[in-house]
């Protein structure tokens, strides 16, 4: 077996079960696995899982602690009971991984976090999983949707509930203020009855300002789902 990131051989002792019932799964070698930092829920914002430093302003509402970013979103979307979670910190190691996977286009890396994605159905039972869509222009340029591809490799069932009807330049080319001012780019891609009274998990690759996911949630919320939660690989 080879590491799904660095492609070096992984040497390990197999159990009898693994010998008799081999699974087609991807795995990181221990050197690559330790590159990525899991995102903790300790001393973090209850809204977006952002790590809260002692020097950072914190706001307590209904026995929950929120960062300044989430306070902004709560004021902007007062009726949306949002809750975002992520697997990893968006640090230098994760940025390097995204550079190779998302921007260089090494689609083989979609298998890197297969085990993490496979945990979602147990964490969010009875939810419809909806990856954030790309515009037709971006999809043609990149060749694949980075989120849908990871879910496909992990064999996690998802549905395309949204269409991205407005093409925008890459998020990395905009300042925080410009991102927050971006107009709604999404439209419902299915019949409204298909999501009415359903629980939906919106899934993106990276959470930065949160604007993309809040736009997507606002689009879905108009059609009466019972609950909307958001998730990303990194934050």
From TrEMBL:
Domain Phosphoribosyltransferase: 142-233
SUPFAM superfamilies recorded: PRTase-like (SSF53271)
InterPro entries listed in its UniProt record: ComF/GntX_DNA_util-trans (IPR051910), PRTase-like (IPR029057), PRTase_dom (IPR000836)
Pfam family, one: Pribosyltran
Superkingdom of source: Bacteria
Family named by the database record: Belongs to the ComF/GntX family.
Protein name, entry field: Competence protein ComF
Protein species of origin: Enterococcus thailandicus
